[in-house]
Each structure stands twice: as C-alpha cells, then as structure tokens.
Design goal:
Layout (H helix, E strand, L loop, with lengths): L10 H12 L7 H15 L18 E3 H8 L3 H10 L4 E4 L2 E5 H10 L3
Antiparallel strand pairs: 1-3, 2-3
Helix pairs in contact: 3-4
C-alpha cells in the first residue's frame, strides 16, 4: 500500500501520516523526557563513599568489603587483593563475600613506614 495514497478522515491521523512521510516524529512531552533522563541518571550515579577510618566516627563498621577497603585506603582493588595474597592483610569470608576487619586495616596503615 502506498503511503501517499492513504486517505484518512481524522485530522490527527492525517497529521501523523504527514509526519511519518517526512520522517519527523512528534516529540515527547517535556515531563516524560525529564522523567526518562532522571531514571537514566539514577542508573549511573556513583554509590556513596564509605566512611573514613576514624576512631571518632559514630557507628563504625567492623568490616569492609574489598572495594570499600580499597576506597578507604586510597588504593586499587587489585592492590588490596595483592596485599591479601602477600599476607599483609588478613581477609575473612562471610559466604561469598570477602571482608577485611577495620582493625586489620588500621594495623596495616600503622605498619607502613613514615
């Protein structure tokens, strides 16, 4: 069926047919666009950074995941795994999760040369 020969009685259908022929599709209403952008932005937001290792922090965590420990130490994940392999950090396992105790992180930092 030829689109040019299409006859419509409804004005809205005729306008849509013109837009289709010109490859100009009507834009979405602004509130929908804003909602879509916010949803997409929420997917790419960075997770909150873990609290620093300080003695005065309220409700200190007892253990950190490898990613959180790396962020606290300012090192890469690979470097933390390397230190675990070298025996410089003692990991604990909780199911599949690898945890590093806060006290082990503090002891590691204190053992570093000035």
């Amino acid at each position: 069926m030829d689109r040019g020969a299409c006859v419509t009685s409804d004005r809205r259908s005729a306008d849509a047919e013109k837009c289709f022929r010109r490859n100009q599709f009507p834009s979405l209403p602004p509130p929908l666009r804003v909602r879509q952008v916010r949803r997409m932005a929420a997917r790419f937001r960075r997770p909150p950074q873990p609290a620093a290792l300080s003695a005065s922090a309220p409700r200190e965590r007892l253990a950190y995941s490898v990613d959180e420990a790396a962020a606290c130490l300012g090192l890469s994940r690979a470097h933390v795994y390397r230190m675990i392999a070298q025996g410089r950090l003692q990991p604990r396992k909780a199911g599949k999760r690898t945890l590093i105790l806060r006290s082990d992180l503090v002891a590691f930092l204190e053992s570093l040369p000035h």
